[in-house]
């Protein structure tokens, strides 16, 4: 989704100024309290360019400033930071066990949040409930962009939901319906993005998680097994937007039947429902064995820095499951891969919600940097 913003855009002076503004926002997002002089050095820009761009961002309300402590003679420097109360992004999550709404600032800090019951039978009903939960939090807030995460196969650029099997939804213009829901809230020109929930969670690990990962795979373990892949700080979707469907890798051809029609898929062994049916040490050990198998396949295939585990199953089993996986991993993984490469998500159950918010924030800055202006 987000670009590194190192490539100078084609276009005239106005386009270049927007690119400078976006790079400055991105730099301040990474380093709060930075001075104008340090910004100029960090971005290799002239002080005059930084001063002009910062003035525009201050006038627009996207930045705030405060004096830095004096360091000696001369005028004290001024620290710049993102405005965090009145400008932000909206994140919506639709999932099997809950829906959720959050308003976040550009740094990813939650300013308002509501958790709703599981998704209803139709997309229309789900969007109406999310609208109702959002409306009370919009007073005095400028929403710069909005993101929606959902567990299903979709084409993010076109916004078409091909299939959400666990929700029972298929062939829906998700982005179009999302935009209509935003317009009903008065957010008529708000930038909007939709993303698979595991992809959103994986992106959140890079953008917001303390792991600082540029290459990672997130395994979402709940009703089924989903996966999100981040490569060089961007979500990898694959040639047909189906990358990360690791839940249907067969771990045992003679294993239990899977709803996809095959036998022994990872999803047939690893689900919250299966754990709830028999929450015993024996079942925990079996699940750890299968997850060690699956993690080894992912490590050998994609060579991520980490395989990060999240979702309701992980919330229910936590460190106990992780310790068993790490102990069993050497049985299946190549010698170059270490047990510590499998880890728990630091974002917990909020990974997809926060991740799609981070995607929306980066989408806003990307559009500022590269959208053509007349």
UniProtKB/TrEMBL annotation:
<dbReference type="InterPro" id="IPR036388">
    <property type="entry name" value="WH-like_DNA-bd_sf"/>
</dbReference>
<dbReference type="InterPro" id="IPR000600">
    <property type="entry name" value="ROK"/>
</dbReference>
<dbReference type="GO" id="GO:0009384">
    <property type="term" value="F:N-acylmannosamine kinase activity"/>
</dbReference>
<dbReference type="Pfam" id="PF13412">
    <property type="entry name" value="HTH_24"/>
</dbReference>
<keyword id="KW-0418">Kinase</keyword>
<keyword id="KW-0808">Transferase</keyword>
<protein>
    <submittedName>
        <fullName>N-acetylmannosamine kinase</fullName>
        <ecNumber>2.7.1.60</ecNumber>
    </submittedName>
</protein>
<dbReference type="InterPro" id="IPR036390">
    <property type="entry name" value="WH_DNA-bd_sf"/>
</dbReference>
<dbReference type="Pfam" id="PF00480">
    <property type="entry name" value="ROK"/>
</dbReference>
<comment type="similarity">
    <text>Belongs to the ROK (NagC/XylR) family.</text>
</comment>
<dbReference type="InterPro" id="IPR049874">
    <property type="entry name" value="ROK_cs"/>
</dbReference>
<dbReference type="InterPro" id="IPR043129">
    <property type="entry name" value="ATPase_NBD"/>
</dbReference>
